[in-house]
Amino acid sequence: MIALLQRVSRADVRVDGVCIGAIGHGLLVFVCAEPADTEALADKLVVKLLKLRIFSDAAGKMNLSVADVQGSLLIVSQFTLAADVSGGNRPSLIGAAGPEPGRRLYERVVATARSLHPNVACGEFGADMQVSLVNEGPVTIPITLR
């Protein structure tokens, strides 16, 4: 699985102009499933997101997790994270899981996050979404789990 997370002071996702998910302080997480990914790997990704120490402590060091700071998660599907641009100017997206396994694994990430963390919002799989955010830091971290 591939994820791109951003530490945010706020973020929201809209479909057809309607806000379907919004958070304050926390993490915006873009998620992409790859063909060989499993539910166990989706669960592992969520555990990593919740424990990753990327929020500042009292001394200003990145030493606290989203759980420690009681932050929120906004989870958005983004299959373009699997894009391969090595062969030309048009990205190849064959590295992303197909629509059905992609949806199943994305929904697993959201369900697992909701079972482990109190504040989780999400986008809509397969929809044309508009995402707005204010990145804190900025802190943006790519994660690839296999």
Task: Give the overall average pLDDT.
Answer: 97
| SSE succession | EEEHEEEHEE
The helix-and-strand class reads: alpha/beta
Q: What's the tally of helices?
A: 2
Question: How many beta strands in the DSSP annotation?
Answer: 8
Largest sheet: 6 strands, mixed
Reported CATH architecture: 3-Layer(bba) Sandwich
Number of domains: 1
Question: Unreliable runs, pLDDT <50, ≥5 residues?
Answer: none
Beta-strand percent range: 35-45%
Distance between the termini: 6 Å
Helix content: 10-25%
The best one-word shape is: globular
CATH superfamily: D-tyrosyl-tRNA(Tyr) deacylase
Would you state the CATH class?
Answer: Alpha Beta
CATH topology: D-tyrosyl-trna(Tyr) Deacylase, Chain: A
- Cα radius of gyration in angstroms: 15 Å
